[in-house]
Amino acid sequence: MHRNPQHQNDDDSDEYDGPSKSQRKRDMHKLQDMGAELVALSPARLAKVPLPERLHDAILEYARVGKHEAKRRQLQYIGKLMREVDPAPIREALDAFAGVSRAEIARQHKLERLRERLLEDEGTLGDIAAAYPDADLQHLRNLRRNAIKEREAAKPPRAYREIFRILRDFEYADDGEAQSAGEEGGEDDEA
After folding, report:
1. Residue 4: pLDDT band by 50, 70, 90 thresholds?
2. What's the per-residue H, E or C state across the chain?
3. Cα(61)–Cα(53) distance, integer angstroms
4. What pLDDT is recorded for position 12?
5. What does the alpha-carbon distance between residue 82 and residue 28 come to, in Å, rounded to a whole number?
6. Which end of the chain has fewer CB within 10 Å, C or N?
7. pLDDT at 112
8. Which of 146, 179, 139 is nearest to 160 (CA)?
9. Which residues contact 92 (CB under 8 A, 6 or more apart)?
10. With contact defined as beta carbons under 8 Å apart, do 110 and 182 qualify?
11. What is the mean predicted confidence (pLDDT) over 99-128?
């Protein structure tokens, strides 16, 4: 009886040959998308991302390239370079910029709790003054009063949001990211 050589070692077919071609392609597109996020960063933020020199230079080159097709090819090149690095620290930095890291979320929740405490008790202004010596307590007191009135009248929470913005500005003043975290994180849409 003659056996077909293709079927001689059926047991070997259970071996793992690595990710499928489709999976490798999806992974490659994810890295290219991450590269697109990197090219959208300002130079100051890009400097904070842990990147190898070649990748950093390729990202800067993307800004200098003019035509659409050249930009597309440069983005593909950036994606190719991304395959040579560990994307985890880069993703972590991008998430922090977007305000989605755990530490960033915890920081914003802390500010939200402080705002709620202020609305419940005017004495919280003392805690705010201790934590943020440059805070304009009279302005915060007026905003507190307005936020309470807005709640009672079921009006849009303008003063409520402004309190958060002020607290956020003080909280982020140390690392120079006062505006970025909340605006990109979507806090201002809270009701």
Report:
1. low
2. CCCCHHHCCHHHHHCCCCCCHHHHHHHHHHHHHHHHHHHCCCHHHHHCCCCCHHHHHHHHHHHHCCCHHHHHHHHHHHHHHHCCCCHHHHHHHHHHHHCCCHHHHHHHHHHHHHHHHHHHCCCHHHHHHHHCCCCCHHHHHHHHHHHHHHHHCCCCCHHHHHHHHHHHHHHHHHHCCCCHHHHHHCHHHCC
3. 12
4. 53
5. 9
6. N
7. 92
8. 146
9. 101
10. no
11. 85
Name the most confidently modeled range: 76-80, 81-85, 158-162: 158-162
Compute the C-alpha angle 84/92/49, nearest 5°. Answer: 65
CA distances from 156 to 38, 133, 141, 162 (A): 36, 29, 19, 12
Predicted TM-score (pTM) of the model is: 0.45
Residue 61 has pLDDT above 70, yes or no: yes
Q: Rounded mean pLDDT of the chain?
A: 80
Quick one: tokens of 145?
A: 């009063």
